[in-house]
């Protein structure tokens, strides 16, 4: 059955209803606590704190959901209770308690009115509340689909050569030798991007004319790159008018085209989503804020019990924590202090979501290293802007610290850290882990013969291939100058060997140019595997030994380091 996905508004309505449906039980409990307090204040003094929490929490949630009447009553109750809690221990509030009872009755009336005006609330709660249905979207299957590129050019040899090299970079390529077959194919299956020649036998600007025609038919311009033998003004103008995004003159390097394609496609296949951890003991409020952030394209994890923070931080690795300030077992301030005890999270941005408007309290909360306050009820755009700004800054900082500037792969330190954590995870989950040590062959010669810049070009090409061809969950690091380390998770040694061999072969077919010279490059690789080796050092040594053997045996090959029972 085709189940229609609820809209954002429907999800929010469901959350509001879920909140309202829980109110009668919460109110009954609060009234009971009030009666006990009235009968003997000193014996039940602890209940005053609980009742204060009740009003505080209703105030925040009700205002987030737009139930302003309820929020106002809760606000008065919270202030009143605060003055009562601060009374000297010997003083009994007596009549001062009466307004509390009135406030609770007023709340009940408000609630009845809300329920009547909103139809059958009880019936609505038969649906699973949103936060159970879609608590976490971080596990959404990562799309590993290769980008589909159409190349249209009437010179078969050039097209096949270029197509083959781009295929080595990890794109799915289809060739067309004339504009008509290209036209038909686009209408059948839309490519992610197009590389188009300009001049065809049927017209000197037939290529760009075809792109312009198609954009009218399909209602948008296809992301296109022109690859032409001509670089004159007319040809370039035709390309601009057809909405093409880049222009290359032949012969173009596959590496440059691949770089441009990546740039064009980045808009659609965006960088990894920002990961936000929302900590709030009120599931509806957590779900509401999560919804807003998810709607803005972020990956959100909710945590309702702060005691799970250590595990969630490790597993989810958020870019920002959005925490409620007032939670029963552990306040937001205490939570932030715990996070800051861990050196690896020292710079993780923490933002409080709170209805705390007291500047003094805000200031003391900031002293544990919290980035800022967002006061409830939040304005969705403000929440998104505040979160994105800080989370992106965190991403940039992390990238600067953990990535290599030439290839943007993980640097040596981060790769080593990841080797430790990945092995621990593999042991915990009883999954295979393959370590691949990969080293360019005779790279000194490349530098010596063609210059350092040509060498850099090779390093970039290899990292691009690795990024395209490995899964998002695999780890790719630049381990040394011309040495790379790969961590392939949950695959067999046989599969990994085949994959690395395929990469080796494809890479060896990429043609590089330096001035007039054309050259190719190869690499050697050594593999080792958990569970064959159960310690990081042993795993690394086994892969190194295998790499050494590959070099020794003549380079451009893959060797698997088998466990030796000696
Ligand atoms: N262009 C460029 N070269 C680098 C970079 N980092 C290291 N290298 C060079 O990589 C070369 C490594 O040379 P060697 O360790 O002798 O190894 P090789 O020539 O690749 O020989 P084998 O590994 O035995 O096949 C040196 O010439 C380094 O200067 C870099 O970032 N860019």
Automatic annotation (TrEMBL):
Transmembrane segments: none annotated. SMART domains: GGDEF, REC. Its EC number is 2.7.7.65. GO terms for cellular component: plasma membrane. Residues 8-118 form the HPt domain. It catalyses: 2 GTP = 3',3'-c-di-GMP + 2 diphosphate. The keyword Phosphoprotein applies. Pfam families: GGDEF (PF00990), Hpt (PF01627), Response_reg (PF00072). Gene3D superfamilies: 3.30.70.270, 3.40.50.2300, HPT domain. Keywords: Phosphoprotein, Two-component regulatory system. NCBIfam families: GGDEF (TIGR00254). This is diguanylate cyclase.
């Amino acid at each position: 059955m085709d189940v229609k996905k609820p809209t954002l508004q429907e999800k929010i309505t469901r959350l509001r209803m879920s909140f309202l449906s829980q109110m009668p039980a919460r109110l009954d409990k609060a009234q009971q606590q009030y009666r006990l307090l009235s009968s003997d204040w000193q014996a039940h003094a602890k209940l005053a704190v609980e009742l204060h929490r009740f009003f505080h929490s209703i105030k925040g949630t009700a205002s987030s959901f737009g139930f302003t009447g309820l929020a106002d009553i809760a606000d008065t109750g919270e202030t009143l209770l605060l003055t009562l809690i601060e009374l000297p221990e010997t003083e009994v509030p007596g009549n001062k308690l009466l307004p509390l009872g009135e406030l609770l009755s007023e709340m009940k009336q408000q609630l009845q009115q809300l329920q009547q005006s909103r139809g059958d609330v009880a019936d609505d709660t038969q649906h699973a509340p949103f936060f159970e249905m879609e608590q976490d979207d971080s596990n959404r299957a990562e799309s590993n689909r290769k980008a589909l590129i159409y190349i249209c050019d009437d010179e078969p040899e050039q097209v096949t050569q270029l197509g083959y090299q781009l295929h080595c970079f990890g794109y799915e390529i289809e060739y067309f030798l004339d504009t008509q077959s290209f036209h038909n194919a686009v209408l059948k299956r839309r490519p992610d991007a197009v590389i188009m020649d300009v001049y065809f036998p049927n017209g000197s600007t037939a290529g760009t004319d075809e792109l312009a025609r198609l954009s009218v038919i399909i209602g948008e311009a296809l992301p296109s790159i022109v690859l032409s033998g001509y670089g004159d003004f007319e040809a370039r103008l035709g390309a601009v008018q057809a909405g093409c995004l880049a222009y290359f003159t032949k012969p173009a390097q596959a590496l440059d085209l691949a770089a441009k394609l990546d740039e064009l496609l980045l808009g659609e296949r965006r960088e990894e989503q920002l990961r936000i951890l929302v900590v709030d003991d009120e599931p509806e409020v957590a779900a509401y804020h999560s919804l807003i952030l998810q709607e803005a394209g972020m990956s959100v994890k909710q945590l309702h019990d702060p005691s799970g923070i250590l595990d969630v931080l490790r597993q989810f690795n958020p870019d920002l924590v959005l925490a409620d300030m007032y939670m029963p077992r552990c306040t937001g301030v205490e939570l932030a202090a715990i996070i800051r005890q861990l050196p690896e999270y020292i710079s993780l941005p923490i933002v409080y979501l709170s209805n705390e408007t007291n500047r003094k309290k805000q200031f003391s909360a900031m002293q544990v290293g919290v980035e800022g306050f967002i006061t409830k009820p939040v304005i969705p755009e403000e929440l998104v802007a505040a979160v994105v700004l800080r989370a992106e800054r965190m991403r940039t900082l992390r990238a600067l610290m953990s990535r290599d500037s030439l290839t943007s792969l993980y640097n040596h330190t981060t790769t080593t850290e990841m080797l430790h954590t990945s092995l621990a995870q593999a042991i915990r989950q009883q999954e295979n882990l393959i370590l691949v040590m990969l080293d360019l062959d005779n790279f000194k010669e490349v530098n010596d013969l063609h210059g350092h810049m040509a060498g850099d070009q090779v390093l970039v090409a290899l990292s691009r291939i690795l990024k395209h061809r490995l899964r998002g969950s695999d780890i790719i690091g630049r381990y040394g100058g011309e040495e790379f380390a790969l961590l392939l998770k949950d695959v067999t040694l046989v599969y990994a060997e085949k994959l690395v061999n395929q990469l080796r072969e494809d890479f060896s077919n990429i043609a590089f140019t330096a001035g007039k010279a054309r050259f190719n490059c190869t690499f050697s690789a050594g593999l080792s595997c958990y569970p064959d080796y159960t310690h990081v050092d042993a795993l690394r040594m086994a892969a190194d030994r295998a790499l050494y053997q590959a070099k020794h045996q003549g380079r451009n090959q893959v060797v698997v380091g088998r466990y030796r029972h000696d």
